[in-house]
Amino acid sequence: MGRLTPYVPGEQPSNPDVIKLNTNENPYGPSPASLAAIRAETSDSLRLYPDPNATALKSALADFHAISPSQVFVGNGSDEVLAHIFQGLLKHDEPILFPDITYSFYPVYCGLYDVAYATIPLTPNLEIRLDDYTPTNGGIIIANPNAPTGQALKPSAIETLLERNTDSVVVIDEAYIAFGGESSVGLIDRFDNLLVVQTLSKSHALAGLRIGFALGHPSLIAALERIKNSFNSFPLDRLAIVGAIAALNDRDYFDSIRQKIIATRERLVGELERLDFRVVPSATNFLFVSHRDNAAGAIAEALRARSIIVRHFDHERTVNYLRITIGSDDEVDALLTALKNIQV
Amino acid sequence: MGRLTPYVPGEQPSNPDVIKLNTNENPYGPSPASLAAIRAETSDSLRLYPDPNATALKSALADFHAISPSQVFVGNGSDEVLAHIFQGLLKHDEPILFPDITYSFYPVYCGLYDVAYATIPLTPNLEIRLDDYTPTNGGIIIANPNAPTGQALKPSAIETLLERNTDSVVVIDEAYIAFGGESSVGLIDRFDNLLVVQTLSKSHALAGLRIGFALGHPSLIAALERIKNSFNSFPLDRLAIVGAIAALNDRDYFDSIRQKIIATRERLVGELERLDFRVVPSATNFLFVSHRDNAAGAIAEALRARSIIVRHFDHERTVNYLRITIGSDDEVDALLTALKNIQV
Are residues B172 and B315 in the same domain? Predict the structure, then answer.
């Protein structure tokens, strides 16, 4: 296993005074109902194993998405859910396909599970062109909206892909769907080769708890359950289960924080454009931007000197871009003040 | 992956009035300090990802075991830790070796990761005889104390095994070590092919939180980190990390509950022997017992009719045994009353 190249997540600085716009966390806390549910479960009940099937959480997710619990698989963060998908559903003779610029964990999973893959270039505008995903493949995985670019595809485009790609599993990774994109979950009843993956990390401000899930045909869900039950009987702990259920059931809070983030994003887009940034259209809680005159790496370093951390990737095609998480209005104001003052 | 045979964990009944002596949970709750630490972390901080390296928890485990943090790997329950070990360290041309009667997840991991294995029979007294584990192997995994039998090996016996088995990884699974066995962790400085796996599920009454770990040479730990970082950046959530640290630091509480469990066990052994049970010597928080006259399955059903659940395995060699978790004194009294009254 010596040739594994692990994924490197964004930095988690220990200094709480840093303005952290580098890992796409939600600037608002979880639902108060979620925190109350966790506190209520913080008791002697922790001596007991969790429900290995997380039945109550699957029911809450099924209610949230108006589907059946048999169409729901849950895991310890969407990273674990994706890992099981790569191991169980994407290993075939033909390579799987995903964009050249996307979530950089996908090739890592391929290394871990010996899955062949080929990358399909984004267009010069950094868009995914689904016509480039030809039928001869072992599977297709598309982040929608894509990361780190932030652009979203319409479900109608996904539907067209599914109509001609019927022989392999299509995974739509919707980690950022809560912030303006349209989910493809409505297609799972029609296409038995579609899996939609989501997480509560960003949408419900629960990155600290690790709750991910996949939605799809019961036969795909059953295949993932076999993997999970051969790997770890109890991937979700008791506190994550109750916290997730309460967060899902508090829809007003969910709507209020995502609307605030979308409003802050739209304001930040305008301000950055006035500062000569090009901003890729975003349906997420982050912006992917490049500056007309200044190098992205230099801007990132200058921001870091002012205790503001943003993400800079070194992929050849995106070396001049920064990914900036939408923070609170105060954090965004501090970012804008810093950008106006730095000399690079 | 259609031929996977998943592990089936013990039943988790939803009825709280059931006396649950089937999954080896601790009858006492977690340390009050652990519960307080979890409540303190149940805040807006849950919007942030956990420390991907769980550095503070590794330090607490290193302190607890008087070793270095570079000798510590942590995961989402010892099941996840074991899965990574099977995937990363035990797949070779030669089969790995483990007892014919032991934790039944081991062959499941072998199926998941295509690891060849051979089982070595326990002696007629249900003991592990390490002389039977010959040097030609891809690895050796020994639960010590063994489950479901409960018997412990001395570290000196493990040491003898390690002295002659130097070419493959030896895993000692110490899930039950807190209840009277002697840990082999003192051998990790001398044998760079030794991994000791433990969990806080039973010892620290934290089954509901999922905290497992492996202790060994830094090169083995680094290999596990590569697997983990290719699988899931954040396997341990924020609440599990703080709860585990506080539990580890409350040694008085840990000692008090394990001493209570050991005392209850010794009392239960005597009472069961008076009821014509044969009791396998136990260094764990469970007993493995067979009755002189009555079939184990019939006893288990009669207990279930009285809302007491114990574990009955259908392995040919142990079909006439029951595994009974050491509960609280009240639970053990209820068990004994039921056993005196049932007619099978």
Answer: no
B27–A contact, CB cutoff 8 A: yes
Per residue in B150-189, pLDDT (tens digit) is: 999 999 999 999 999 999 999 999 999 999 999 999 999 9
ipTM value, please give it.
0.96
Task: Tell me the pLDDT tens digit for each residue of B12-65.
Answer: 887 888 999 999 999 999 999 999 999 999 999 999 999 999 999 999 999 999
Q: Which residue of B has its CA nearest to A53?
A: B12
Interchain contact, B46 vs A233, CB within 8 Å: no
The answer to whether position B5 is within a domain reads no
| Cα A330 from Cα A337, distance rounded (Å) | 11
The residue from A250, A272, A306 where one domain ends is A250
pLDDT in tens, B186-227: 999 999 999 999 999 999 999 999 999 999 999 999 999 999
Q: How far apart are CA A24 and CA A84, in angstroms?
A: 23
Please tell me the total number of residues recorded for chain A in this structure. 344
Dihedral class, residue B24 (left if φ above 0, else alpha if ψ from -120 to 50, else beta): left
pTM over the 0.90 mark: yes
Q: Is residue A12 part of a domain?
A: no
- Asked if A87's CB is within 8 angstroms of B1's CB, the reply is yes
Same domain, B203 and B154: yes
Residue A311 DSSP symbol? B
Nearest to A238 by CA among A41, A34, A39, A37: A41
Domain coverage including residue B279: 19-28+252-341
Q: Are the Cβ atoms of B206 and A46 closer than 8 angstroms? A: yes
- Establish if B206 touches chain A: CB-CB under 8 angstroms: yes
Residues B232 and B285 in one domain: no
Kindly state whether residue A227 falls inside one of the protein's structural domains.
Answer: yes
Residue A158 token pair: 């996904």
Say which CATH number the domain at A314 has: 3.90.1150.10
Q: Are residues A43 and A146 in the same domain?
A: yes
Paired strand residues for A288? A323
Greatest pairwise CA separation for chain B in angstroms: 59
Residues 6+ apart with CB under 8 A from A100: A119, A120, A121, A122, A317
